[in-house]
Structures are given as structure tokens and as C-alpha cells.
């Protein structure tokens, strides 16, 4: 295998669309049309649920951030735990929730737009709507893939940090 060949690259030759005997709209068969019609409401539903989850995460983050003074005051009375540490942990958790909401927003947006554009294509038959739907599907998969790579790359680092913190807390 040559070094310049990308095994993940799409084939260069375009395949001819397959027409069903029952007729089709554009280059899509009736079966493809049915699958798109069935997938569209689910994609929109999952997109809306993703937006709702983002809202809950932001709300949780704001709640954690607003509890910092209370956590600091309450934890300062416990021997061995400084109040600043408790407030910092509340702030860290709130910050993580809000960052999580930002990262969840994009897949929710891509999923919703995928379903909405499929629906638009079903109603109008415009190829541009279907192209936009596929573009959003590609963006969803690309974003999710990159985020997965980042998460798996950070996993060993977080594991090492967890072991160090665990050993340090046992020693202290």
C-alpha cells in the first residue's frame, strides 16, 4: 500500500443512482424516500431533546456557580476541608456543566437540522434541501468522531490525575 493512499477517503468514481420500478422522486427510490420519511421526525425529536438537555446542563451549571458562597461557608466548618476548596469544586462542577452544554449543543443542532431538511425535501422535492440534510449528517458524524477522539485521548491523563489525587488524599 502506498504512503499517500488514504484508506478512509471516499471512492473517486461516482455510482449511478438506482431507480425503483415503482417510480421515484429525483434519484431516490421509493424505499429510500420511505426511510427518509421515517427518519425525519426522529432526528428532529432527538435534536429537540438535545437542546432541552443543553438547557438543563446550563441550569445545573448556573446553580452550582451560584452555590459557591454557600459551599465555601458551610464547608469551612468541617475540620480538614478549607472552604475555598469546596467553593472551587462547586465552581469547577458548574464550569464543566456549562462546557458540556456547549459541546452537546452542536450535535443537537446538526441532528435537528438533518431532520428538518429531510422534512423540507419531502415537502418540496428540492435537491438542495436533501444536500443540506446530508451536509448536516456529515457534520454530526464528523463532530462526534472528533469529540470521541479527544475524549479517548484525555482518558489516560484523567486516569493518572485521579490516581495521583487518590494517593495524595490517602497520604494526607
Fold and architecture overview:
This protein is mostly helical and 172 residues long. The chain has one domain (30-151). It is 77% helix and 0% strand. It contains 4 helices and no strands. It has helices spanning 30-66, 68-75, 83-124, 127-171. α2 runs antiparallel to α3 (83-124) and α3 runs antiparallel to α4 (127-171). Mean pLDDT is 82; it is low at 15-24.
Uncertain runs are: 15-24
Kindly state the number of beta strands: 0
The total count of helices amounts to 4
In helices, the fraction of residues equals over 70%
Global outline: elongated
Structural class: mainly alpha
Note the main sheet. Answer: none
Percent of residues in beta strands: under 5%
CA-based gyration radius: 24 Å
The number of distinct structural domains comes to 1
Averaging pLDDT over every residue, what do you get? 82
Query: Termini distance?
Result: 55 Å
Q: Please trace the helix and strand order, writing H or E for each element.
A: HHHH
